[in-house]
Automatic annotation (TrEMBL):
Top-level taxon of the source organism: Bacteria
A Pfam family hit: Usp
Domain UspA residues, every copy: 157-278
Protein name in UniProt: Universal stress protein
Organism, scientific name: Bosea rubneri
Gene3D superfamilies, A to Z: 3.40.50.12370
Matches recorded under PANTHER family: STRESS RESPONSE PROTEIN NHAX, UNIVERSAL STRESS PROTEIN HP_0031
Similarity remark: Belongs to the universal stress protein A family.
Length: 279
């Protein structure tokens, strides 16, 4: 399975709140099935506040808190090493101590030298981890699988491809090729938001996917009144029983996203199924 996947990267950011993720288990499962190497970045997010701003009391608080966060990150790193060993996965585990301003660059640099990245879904666009997801999507040049809570086993027997005929969608389709052989694939085109008549239709994409060993069906869905594209994709994925949803990632200005929303942002806010996204 997935013979083209040789290196998988996943990142976990310890902020001291004791949160846990699904991405590690999912990445381990993917690496195990693909016979790939797994790199785990368990970063301790350190506070870096000048003493002149917080005084002696603040300094006395920050130093122990940084040590606590680092300890938690290292504990997660040990969990990752043990889990990889039990799964028979060759893994490299890194536990860097970084301030938030350094996290995005570190993550992107690692993502660029792996076949794909696996990250946890973050519903709140204002949270730090959402910024890291966006950095991986738009700056790494590599695909990202975004995993919702509770999904810890990789599967790609049924794949839904959200297709609008664009170059971005074509890039996402190219990234899912390692998983096509033996899979059931549904090509979904959602009409009603924009004119798709000038783009390559899903029916023309289908033979290409069939040549890669997939059993392909094509579905065109018109938006219902008040429905957005992301909701149409989620509904179609549920009806198809998709293990994985594939779509291009689109970036607009922050102002435009705030005013108009956007398919990418909407999917990142709520997706019960793993998303393979590429830019």
């Amino acid at each position: 399975m997935a013979p083209m996947i040789k290196s998988v990267f996943t990142a976990y950011t310890e902020e001291g709140e004791g949160e846990r993720d699904s991405a590690l288990g999912y990445a381990l499962s993917l690496a195990q099935q693909a016979g790939a190497h797994l790199t785990v970045q368990a970063a301790a997010m350190r506070y870096n506040i000048p003493g002149t701003l917080i005084g002696d009391f603040g300094v006395a608080f920050v130093a122990p808190e940084n040590r606590r966060i680092t300890s938690l990150a290292k504990r997660f790193g040990e969990l990752a090493r043990t889990s990889a060993a039990l799964a028979g996965v060759n893994a490299t585990v890194e536990t860097p101590e970084l301030i938030y301003a350094e996290l995005g660059g570190w993550l992107v640099s690692q993502a660029r030298v792996h076949d794909l990245s696996v990250l946890d879904l973050e519903k709140d666009a204002a949270q730090r981890d959402r910024g890291l997801i966006e950095a991986a999507l738009f700056d790494s040049g590599r695909p990202v699988i975004i995993v919702p809570p509770g999904v810890e086993t990789f599967a790609a027997k049924r794949i839904l491809i959200a297709w609008d005929g664009s170059a971005t969608a074509a890039r996402a389709v190219a990234e899912v090729r390692p998983f096509l052989a033996g899979a059931e694939v549904e090509i979904l085109s959602v009409t009603g938001e924009k004119d798709l008549s000038k783009f390559v239709a899903g029916a023309e994409l289908a033979p290409h996917l069939s040549r890669h060993g997939a059993a392909v069906s094509v579905r065109n869905v018109a938006l219902a009144t008040g429905q957005d594209v992301a909701e149409a994709i989620r509904m179609a994925a549920a009806e198809f029983g998709a293990d994985l949803v594939v779509c291009g990632a689109y970036k607009h200005s922050r102002l435009r996203e705030w005013i108009l929303g956007g398919v990418t942002q909407s999917l990142l806010k709520a997706s019960p199924r793993p998303l393979l996204m590429s830019r």
